[in-house]
Amino acid sequence: MPAGRLRRGLTEPLLPFAALALLAVAAAAADHAVLCWASVGALAGYSLSGSV
Fold this sequence. Notes:
- By secondary structure, the protein is mostly helical.
- 77% of the residues lie in helices and 0% in strands.
- It has one domain.
């Protein structure tokens, strides 16, 4: 795989957004309220920063 294609795939804004969303759902399912709200706050900050 060429380096440019790999770099483009890793910098895609969907990757961190999906990871934070999965973290929020997993934390809510495991009843970790603080981690859940922290990941929801990170999602909000990420989306408001214009990264998405």
